[in-house]
Amino acid sequence: DGGITQSPKYLFRKEGQNVTLSCEQNLNHDAMYWYRQDPGQGLRLIYYSQIVNDFQKGDIAEGYSVSREKKESFPLTVTSAQKNPTAFYLCASSGIRSGANVLTFGAGSRLTVL
Amino acid sequence: AQKVTQAQTEISVVEKEDVTLDCVYETRDTTYYLFWYKQPPSGELVFLIRRNSFDEQNEISGRYSWNFQKSTSSFNFTITASQVVDSAVYFCALSEASYSGGGADGLTFGKGTHLIIQP
Hints:
The structure holds 2 protein chains of 2 kinds.
Chain A lengths: L3 E4 L2 E4 L5 E7 L5 E8 L3 E10 L2 E4 L6 E3 L9 E3 L8 E8 L9 E2 L3 E5 L1
Chain B lengths: L2 E3 L4 E5 L4 E3 L2 E3 L5 E8 L6 E7 L6 E3 L2 E6 L4 E6 L8 E9 L11 E2 L3 E6 L1
């Protein structure tokens, strides 16, 4: 079945360490996204990519980095510059066509900074 | 700037009751799209519905129905005869149509409404 795979599901990090969250999709979608979810705050867009080797900052990109070397993959690195990284991270993908597209989401990765 | 407001943080009802989740949006665009997603305890968001700004017809899908009113900038979601399996966080979201035609610059989400259905 087609879908989005995020790993790891749970991750613990010490302060000052970088950590990379994996996101892989086999839906042949062109666009991919990273959202951050905090309790009571909804989802906020970190980065998105509409095409390989290109990506744009979302609303809260500071302290994060991404790459898009392959259509199927869009890893997110949470750097030590991110002051409050403990959160639930959701990856999504969509096709690209005129108008708005339905996003398909992965199961998420929960990052906890110790 | 676009904004989505879900004023109800948490709603608790007894099974079989009807429940309405409110969504109010702000946008400067005349062409836009509205969505509802469900997030069960597992965490993965599940798509429920997409509606474009030119289609104000209400929609019904089984026990779910949606009431879109441009005059009040609202896109409310009603569950009829609620069931325990409906317990989840529900998100309303907005996307403004991209002038590039790509329309792939993400969604703006509300903060969500936590719906609890008690047996």
